[in-house]
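User: quick one, fold this
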Amino acid sequence: MSEVSRIVHRHAKPGCAATYETLVRGMLEASSHFPGYLSAAIIPPHSEDQPFQIIQRFATQADLDRWRSSPESADWHQRLAPVVASEADYRTLSGLEVWFPAKITNTSPARWRLAVVTWMGIFPTVAFCLWYIAPLLAALPFLLKVAILTILVVLAMTYGIMPRLSRWMGWWLKPVRRKT
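Assistant:
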């Protein structure tokens, strides 16, 4: 099983943004005590017409479901009810979709486009590591060498390359709407 991220978009009532954010922080603190909890973040809106974004990460879908169906979660949602202006828009992501945070919308890009952009990042990263770093590791045992190279590739992809590629290729990653 792989880790899951749940993204929530929700508007606070006018004048209630600070109260909403305080309550959400309390809810996220409560969720942090549940098995499988990994992390959470709140992204406040830039303007009143934009929603708050809440990101929760759990080790498995079962861990997220355990939190969602808990009495604690229900209690926090009751506390939030007086200060919200809209129903929550939930989106659960896992796998490669999580590498494209700048483009989280109600519809995802085509998987083949995600694969192409991912390859655009992995190919030069692996080529660089094999050309420049692998010779420095030549004396190490094979599995240790592979472990070091893959750790470097994953770190580079996650923290440097994919966030930039998803911004640069955002125009191409936008979902194509088909006319019906």
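User: anything notable?
Assistant: The mean pLDDT is 84.
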